[in-house]
Amino acid sequence: MRHAVVPRLRGHFSGARWERSRPLPGVRPVRTTLRTAHTIAFAALYGGHVYGIPAASLHPALAATVATGAALMALEMYRTPLWPVQVRGVAAFVKLALLAAVAVWWDWRLLFLTLALVIGGVVSHMPGRYRYYSLLHGRVVGAQESG
């Protein structure tokens, strides 16, 4: 089944239309601001769990983490349609799943949040040849931009 679906998907998501970033004037300061807000929100959420702050008191940090993360994901998906199949996009979805897992396996929350933090740090600082690698295409796709 996989062998029949992947070539079809690969063919659908190939070509310059998909592999090229959409220009968005002024995107760099927006991305930097969102990333900074996301880091602050997650730091408050993580620290709250580390130091045993009551869960209800962490709801604003959770909401800010989810909101800024969703804004970053939406921005990246708009700019680079192939983002969800690149390592950087897949990593974001894995981090989202880890955050959701906290609600199900509360006693394991520090492990899940630590894994999300490690994945974010590693993926955001790995070379572009890995970060822009498409799991669908089996190669680097899209522009390797900075910022």
Provide an overview of this structure.
The protein has 147 residues and is mainly α. It has one domain. The protein is 67% helix and 3% strand. A two-stranded antiparallel sheet has the order 1-2. Strand 1 and strand 2 form a beta hairpin. Helix 3 runs antiparallel to helix 4 and helix 5 packs antiparallel against helix 6. The termini are far apart. The model has no long low-confidence stretch (mean pLDDT 89).
Write out the strand line-up for the largest beta sheet, numbering strands in chain order: 1-2
Distance between the termini: 39 Å
What is the count of distinct domains? Answer: 1
- Give the % helix: 55-70%
Total helical segments: 7
Output mean pLDDT.
89
Radius of gyration: 17 Å
Classification by helices and strands: mainly alpha
What coarse outline follows from CA principal-axis ratios? globular
Quick structural summary:
Helix content is 67%, strand content 3%. With 147 residues, the chain is mainly alpha-helical. It has a two-stranded antiparallel sheet.
Secondary-structure map with pairings?
Elements: H1 2-12, H2 16-19, H3 27-50, H4 59-79, H5 87-104, H6 109-125, H7 128-131, E1 133-134, E2 139-140
Antiparallel strand pairs: 1-2
Helix pairs in contact: 3-4, 5-6
